[in-house]
Inverse folding.
């Protein structure tokens, strides 16, 4: 009798338990939701112009202080990148008279003479030592947005399009959590390749003119003349 009563009680408890979890959906409606966060970016550069005075040898600018340009930036894109280049439209294309494949650097008004430049970037707070021109061997060239591929250099593609896709012109990259500047001397294998100092809103960029060597081996001194350019900094995202 006790066993029958116990079974009956358990059966009732189970029915109640199942009944408490049972439900039927009679109708379903939904409401869609969207949100758009606009891109917010800013960028500035100091000083507005730089001067090279020691033009008998490879050298960094004599102005501004510490031989550098400081780029300030902000971006809420993930990821963001900053590239440096020139846009020497007066330099003829290779197919034109006096033209050349590589157009990046300081150029004469007629575009027939170009002095290559090299760069590296640091965190401004850690860049207190004036760089030595003898360190230039590991640094990237400043590319021009009109650079063409030189077919004589087998295995390399020096065009601007290829350099841009490869990230060769990037001085820094990051996301909303911060960023790093690019150190071309850092050739470590892996995700940290070319990664330099951590940065947060400012980048110190050192751009040397190769007046004494023209970046060639053996060295070739630059031809006398007046040279100028505008170094262009692009803050962009993909």
């Amino acid at each position: 009798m006790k066993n029958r009563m116990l079974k009956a009680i358990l059966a009732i408890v189970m029915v109640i338990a199942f009944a408490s979890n049972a439900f039927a959906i009679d109708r379903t409606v939904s409401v869609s939701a969207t949100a758009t966060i606009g891109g917010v970016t800013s960028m500035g550069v100091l000083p507005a112009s730089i001067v090279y005075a020691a033009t008998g040898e490879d050298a960094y600018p004599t102005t501004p202080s510490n031989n550098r340009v400081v780029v300030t930036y902000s971006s809420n894109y993930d990821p963001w990148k900053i590239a440096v280049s020139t846009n020497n439209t007066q330099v003829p294309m290779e197919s034109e008279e006096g033209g050349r494949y590589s157009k990046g650097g300081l150029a004469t008004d007629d575009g027939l003479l170009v002095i290559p430049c090299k760069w590296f970037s640091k965190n401004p707070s850690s860049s207190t030592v004036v760089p030595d021109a003898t360190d230039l061997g590991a640094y990237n060239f400043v590319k021009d947005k009109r650079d063409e591929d030189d077919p004589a250099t087998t295995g390399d593609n020096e065009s601007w399009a290829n350099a841009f896709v490869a990230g060769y012109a990037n001085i820094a990259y990051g996301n909303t959590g911060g960023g790093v500047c690019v150190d071309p001397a850092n050739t470590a294998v892996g995700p940290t390749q070319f990664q330099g100092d951590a940065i947060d809103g400012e980048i110190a960029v050192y751009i040397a003119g190769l007046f004494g060597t023209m970046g060639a081996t053996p060295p070739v001194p630059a031809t006398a003349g007046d040279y100028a350019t505008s170094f262009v900094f692009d803050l962009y995202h993909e």
